[in-house]
Amino acid sequence: MPAELYVGLMSGTSLDGVDAALVEFSTNTVRSVATHFAPYPDDVRAEALAIQTPGNDELQRAAMLANRLADIYAATVNELLAAAATPAGAVRAIGCHGQTVRHAPANGYTLQLNNAARLAEKTGIAVVADFRSRDIAAGGQGAPLVPAFHDASFREPGRHRVIVNIGGIANLTDLAPGKPAVGFDCGPGNMLLDAWAARHLGTAYDQGGHWAKQGQVLPALLARLRSHPFFTASPPKSCGREEFGSTWLDSQLDGCEASADVQATLAALTATTIIEAVAKWCGNPAELFVCGGGAHNDSIMEALATGLPGVTVGITDALGLPADWVEAVAFAWLAYRTLHGLPGNLPEATGARGLRVLGAIYPA
């Protein structure tokens, strides 16, 4: 087939900014052409966090934030294309995840803020958005969506491989030979770590997990955190700030903990819940590859390697796709699937009644 270009945009629960990838699709080939990251301005990050808590004038605030996000997304796309010397007319569509502010599949909805019509207008490119709602309408969780892309991109015949995405939330995809892919959310990834670093260091995140490595894991606190019922629930399952926000973390603290020790314990929580999920639901994989920001957290990566003896632990760069850009490329892939009338969900991961074409299309 002739090559087609798509842009994928991902802004996750870490609220750090927008990952953008220009991706070329041709027969049996997915190639990342260019990438760009645009950090959120402080006021946007603060409002995106604040609106996740019920409050006054939510409809007006959500609409205005959606407009602001669309403007940021449009500027990010334009910067990406300029750097790649690619005209907007050469891009078939933008796959835009939007910014999750509520995830409540048990109540039949999930909400990712974005003004896709505004994004299409400002870029002159068709936009595919609202990927999760159709899966939820079909009885699914609407998340995680990336396992379908992991299956298409990272499966290796004869190799039992697990892909772990550590973004704000951690999720995994089990790619066992001869079996359908299975995926689910494991629990908090970087979300609590980033929030704790922002509170105590004044930084967006704990660079390399170095601060966590200065602390000591607190066994009693780790046990309290791990007692959350989400961790023992059976897949399919998904989670967000509703389960693992800062309010929940504060409720588990006794107030006497050293801040570095809490950070070390949060890193241990991310690692141990991934390790336990692999042991319980994935059998005996030979390899585990990590993508997302957590791939750069030495504290988490070392704990995974220690806790999974006999498993080769690495990052997806070794598979040809840099860890920082997997999700952005995945949403370009989802947009491609939508425009070609192909399903984008993985029912084994989301619990939907079947395969579904995802997303709503906003023409250029």
Write up what this structure looks like.
The chain has 14 helices and twelve strands. By secondary structure, the protein is α/β, with parallel strands linked by helices. It has two domains: 4-142 and 323-362, Nucleotidyltransferase, domain 5 (2-Layer Sandwich); 146-319, ATPase, nucleotide binding domain (Nucleotidyltransferase, domain 5, 2-Layer Sandwich), CATH 3.30.420.40. Strands 1, 2, 3, 4, 5, 6 and 12 form a seven-stranded mixed beta sheet that branches. Helix 12 links the parallel strand 10 and strand 11 (312-315). Helix 2 (58-83) runs parallel beside helix 3 (116-123). It is globular. The two termini are 23 Å apart. The model has no long low-confidence stretch (mean pLDDT 97).
What order do the helices and strands come in, and which of them pair?
Elements: E1 4-11, E2 17-26, E3 29-39, H1 42-50, H2 58-83, E4 91-104, E5 109-113, H3 116-123, E6 127-129, H4 132-137, H5 146-154, E7 161-166, E8 169-175, E9 182-188, H6 191-200, H7 210-214, H8 219-226, H9 241-244, H10 246-252, H11 259-281, E10 287-291, H12 298-307, E11 312-315, H13 326-339, H14 347-350, E12 360-362
Parallel strand pairs: 1-4, 4-6, 7-10, 10-11
Antiparallel strand pairs: 1-2, 2-3, 4-5, 6-12, 7-8, 8-9
Helix pairs in contact: 2-3, 6-11, 8-11, 11-12
